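Crp/Fnr family transcriptional regulator: structure, please.
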Amino acid sequence: MSEFVKQVNQYYPLSEETVKALLDICTEEYYHKNDILLKSGSMARYYYFLRSGLIGYYTVDEQGNNIYKIFFEENSFVASTASIIKNEPSDFNIIALEDCSVIKYPVKAYRELLEKYHDLALFHMHYLEKNWVVKKEPLEVSLKYETAKQRYVQLLENESLYSRLKQHHIASYLGITPTQLSRIKKEIH
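Here you go.
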């Protein structure tokens, strides 16, 4: 759990008392490839910290196609944040794309700790600002103004992630068909 605490402390350093309280609500879980951590239409009851593996976050369109919004690699915090904040069922599925080891902590107990420990609340605020505002904004702009080819080139730059994804995941993430992805790859390579 030391990597978990290290990642938390990168956003805001926690006191020993807060770390102990946080670790007391955490459990380690293992998911096999293709296991669903959260099903669309269900309430998000847990936050996750991804120790190893790869997780995808997707919704399903009217035709039954999976539309991937984001992928999470090791040392990432994963949750259906909008579902938790709105206290509504999730619009997204969270799936293990590889065998995964996670640290899991319940939303209700964690939210209680946020109210009790000021430093944990500051971690949470800094995390949300950095990952759901600062990181998300360029993604939203790229989806609106950049072509699938430009977004593909950006994805290629993240070799560690790109090499782990299946072609249908990449096509879905880019909002194109696998055939269109093949054409883009031929143009570039």
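Notes: The first strand starts at residue 27 and ends at 31.
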